[in-house]
Structure formats: structure tokens, C-alpha cells
Design brief:
binds zinc ion, 3 strands, 3-stranded antiparallel β-sheet, 4 helices, mainly alpha
């Protein structure tokens, strides 16, 4: 029992961090691809802060549910670690902080000599999940939005950088074309993963993008 509760407590802590890491690893590429697709479909060249923010707000809607679920699960794991495990330890006559046998403590004091936990404060405390969740929900919602915006911003930044580098390369190609050819038009597909869109140069009318 002692070992099992320590294991549960540690797993609850570790899986919270793992979940955030897994979500970030899985969501940043999604944000990158969704940003790139929107960016290409809007058919414009060069950086536009207004359009970038517009696309970011759209992809945040995609990442928000995932972020909310992750934060909610972490909330539950914390509840297991901070309330359920201490409750089970207390019920099994173990120190709530470190599983030291409580029977030995009663002789001296309610404070654990191993970890300093005040076990007396836990006597009669029953874990209440609904109360706990309600009290923290506001903070979880805030954290979910923050996480969602962070993931969208990282993926979006990478998507925008990828497009801008390709457009700079195209402008250089146009300069070379302008100097070496009399043709009216030079065009090619955008770079990966935006090959469905094209960059077009028309003599006298400049560069524009098509979907
Ligand atoms: Zn202890």
C-alpha cells in the first residue's frame, strides 16, 4: 500500500508534465500546417501583422479543445496527488507526506519526524473532487487559453517564416529572370508545404500570389 500510493503520487506528477510535452510536440506541427494552409489561401505576399493575427486566432480555435482537455486532465492528476493520495495514506495510518507509519507519530506528536508534515490537520479530511475542480476551473480555463495561444504562436511563427523565406527566394529569382529574359511572366509553386499556391511575376505589374 505504501509503495503503491507513492507510485500513484509520482505517476500523477510525471504524467502531467509528459502530457504537456506530448501535446506541444503533437500540436505545434498541426498549428504549422493549418497556419500555412490559411496563409496560402489568403493569396498575398509579404508580412501582414493583421492577417497573421487573423490566422492565429483561427488556429487557436483548433488548438483550444486539446489544450483544455490536457489542462483538465492535469487538474485531475493534481487532485489525485494532492488530495486522494494523502487521504488514502491518512486512512491507512501512514504519514500523508511520506508514508511514515502514523502510529509511531502519535506517541511523539502529529508532526512527522521524517518529512515534517502536520498529520493532525488531515484527520477527518475527505477529498472532494467537485469542490476542488470548481475552485480551480477558472485558472484551468485561463491556462488552456494560454497554452493554446502559445502552441498556435509557435506553429504560426514557423509557418510565416517558411513562407517569407520562400517569397524572398522568389524575389531573387525574379531579379535574375528580369535581367536575363524578355518573357512577360515568371511563375512557380510556393515551397513545401504550400505547393497548391503559386507565386507569379508579371512584367510591369509586379509579384502576386495565387491559390
Ligand atoms: Zn512524513
Amino acid at each position: 500500500m505504501t509503495l503503491l500510493l507513492s507510485l500513484v503520487s509520482r505517476c500523477a506528477r510525471a504524467s502531467g508534465s509528459l502530457l504537456i510535452a506530448a501535446l506541444a510536440v503533437a500540436s505545434v506541427p498541426v498549428a504549422f500546417f493549418v497556419y500555412s494552409a490559411f496563409r496560402t489561401s489568403l493569396e498575398y505576399c509579404g508580412f501582414s501583422i493583421v492577417r497573421s493575427l487573423l490566422i492565429l486566432s483561427v488556429i487557436s480555435i483548433f488548438t483550444l479543445p486539446g489544450a483544455f482537455i490536457a489542462i483538465e486532465v492535469i487538474g485531475q492528476l493534481r487532485w489525485v496527488r494532492d488530495e486522494w493520495v494523502p487521504f488514502m495514506r491518512s486512512r491507512n495510518a501512514l504519514c500523508v507526506g511520506c508514508s511514515y507509519p502514523v502510529d509511531a507519530l502519535r506517541v511523539e506528536s502529529a508532526t512527522c519526524p521524517e518529512c515534517g508534515e502536520s498529520n493532525g490537520a488531515w484527520i477527518g479530511v475527505v477529498p472532494s473532487n467537485s469542490k476542488w475542480v470548481k475552485a480551480r476551473r477558472k485558472r484551468w480555463v485561463f491556462l488552456s487559453v494560454l497554452l493554446s495561444l502559445g502552441i498556435s504562436a509557435i506553429g504560426g511563427f514557423a509557418g510565416e517564416a517558411n513562407v517569407l523565406i520562400d517569397e524572398a527566394r522568389f524575389r531573387h529569382e525574379v531579379e535574375v529572370f528580369h535581367a536575363s529574359s524578355d518573357a512577360r511572366m515568371y511563375a512557380r509553386s510556393r515551397a513545401w508545404p504550400n505547393e497548391t499556391g503559386s507565386l507569379v511575376y508579371l512584367r510591369g505589374r509586379g509579384i502576386h500570389a495565387t491559390d
